[in-house]
Structure prediction request, 330 residues.
Amino acid sequence: MKDTRVIIFGVGSVGKEVVRALSVKKGVKIVGALDKGPIAGRDLGEIAGLGRNLGVLITNDEDALFAGTGADVLIHTTTTHVAETYQQLRKPIVAGINIITAAEELSSPATYDPASTKLLDDLAKKHGVTVLGTGLWPTYVDIDIPLLLSAGSRDVQGVKYCRHSDFRAYMGSVVAKHFGMGVTKKDYEKGVREGVIVGHVGFEGSFERLGHYFGWAITQVTKDESQFYGENGTTTGIRTIARGWENGVQRIEMEIHVCIDEGWDTYDKFEIVAEPSTHMMIKPALYGTRPVANVLVNHIPAVLNAEAGILTRSTVGAFAFGGESGKYVR
Prediction:
């Protein structure tokens, strides 16, 4: 049985964890790594902190990389939005490489950008490859776990998910910049006005996916946000509560409360309102970039087994489906 050949696209905090996750997997081989930063030319194992070289030099020459490695899968960790993701993935798709991307909007791309979604889907189908958007949130904690928990229920009326997260692992990253963590109130308000501070990206797509599986037509999404400031006047906590409504009936509530205070009590809490209802808590919460990378890597078999095009179907096999059964069947 031949090894699955993998390229890493983006060797930042998540990309490094992807390398570590792959290093303990059997039957996979990292054959290339792409990064546009100053680490180009250095060994991937050194940059990822493996304590040994992998013999894979990070490159910024994407044309040579995609054409010359014979890769089966590319794991992509550098974008959020559908349009920019399409631009970055065009070349590996044309080269016949399947894609697993952490881009948040790719969990339900047509919710955000139907035109770019069609371009991406058409290109993937033309070249016979699969494109999957996944990650910790969106996808794993807010879609897959609720679906799995619902398998012992029927007549699901609602889903609630609350995440209290230790955000220290993200400080200094693009994610922290998007959340507005560690800035003054003045700079926070300025960032919101300029569209730099956007908070969590993915509520709308996650609500669309859950609505699809449980048979709801989500007609409205509302959000309430609060900021918490420390003694030095900068943000130490951000809380957002988003709700999905079907014609005035609340179907989904998701809360994310990120904090950098020492001793912050973290957890992931779930409730499936159904017959019977199901409650679950993960404590402490899934932390940092490691579980993000693990979710990406663990989807390699699913992508290789899937049909060509954008894959939005959950890899969870049994759930309390609420729509016509035929729409969940290939």
